[in-house]
Amino acid sequence: MAQTAELVKTLKAALKSNNLTYADVARQLKMSEANMKRLFVSKRFTLQRLEEICQLMQMELTDLFQLYQESRQRISHLTLEQEKELVKDEKLLLVAVSVRNHLTFKDIISNYLLSEIECIRCLAKLDKLMIIDLLPNNRIKLRIDEDFHWIENGPIENFFEQKIQKHFLKSGFRAELEHRRFMFGLLSDSSIRVLLKKMHNLTKEFADLHRQDAHLPLEKRHNIGFIMAMRPWEFEVFEPLIRSKHKGK
Question: How far apart are CA 227 and CA 180, in angstroms?
């Protein structure tokens, strides 16, 4: 019903932008204004009725769906309150990280010590926080953009610095799929800006690869941490929640 309500909301906005009132639509469709208002309140439109209303605006039905998608813009960063909600509940954060990595509901409960009820609770919370859309049959639609960023010095960054950064760097970076490079030198401001631009482009490429690999089965993907150093890695705070059959991989 949430999606239906948002679609009707999009339809109302389209009518308003075309300077069409309920009375105008009712007259064109040979209905009473009262019945037209009840239709919008009940949100019980047939596809045929939606198409008829779209035609009044010289739109195709697909145009309405496109407007709906555009109205559900993906977010490039979280709010301060959203970040606070995530870091105060480790199970919620685990589910948030999992859906960010395109895991399905089945993937999450199969790989972590979460019951179906606990996972649904977390997904419902993420839906309320507008981080995902929770669809029928526990399907998940991610609303976070692939290149979203954390709030500078915000709750997530502080959580990372306090609980994750040291654990990630506690490695010689010599094993398979691990790599680290540290260089030191004197550079001009212009050269530094060149490197910063390359770093920005590399983060975009990481996001593109993350999106590209999302269709692969979970066993074909690795959790990868990346700070110009890379190695297979799990969040230490999540290790107690990993099902025993996956430990040691």
Answer: 9
**Residue that the structure tokens 């309150």 belong to:** 81
Domain residue ranges in the chain? 2-71, 75-249
Q: Which CATH class is domain 2-71?
A: mainly alpha
| R_g of the chain, CA atoms, integer Å | 24
Q: What are the two backbone dihedrals, phi and then psi, of residue 226, each rounded to the nearest 5 degrees? A: -145, 110
- Amino acid (1-letter code) at residue 1: M
Cβ atoms of 87 and 155 closer than 8 Å? yes
Look up the pTM and report it.
0.58
Provide the greatest CA pair distance for the chain.
Answer: 77
SS3 242: strand
User: 138 with 120: CB under 8 angstroms?
Assistant: yes
Give one DSSP letter per residue of 86-100, joined into a string: HHT-HHHHHHHHHHH
Nearest to 167 by CA among 105, 95, 223: 223
The two three-digit tokens of residue 154, written as one number? 């915000």
The 10s digit of each residue's pLDDT in 222-247 is 888 777 755 666 667 777 888 864 44
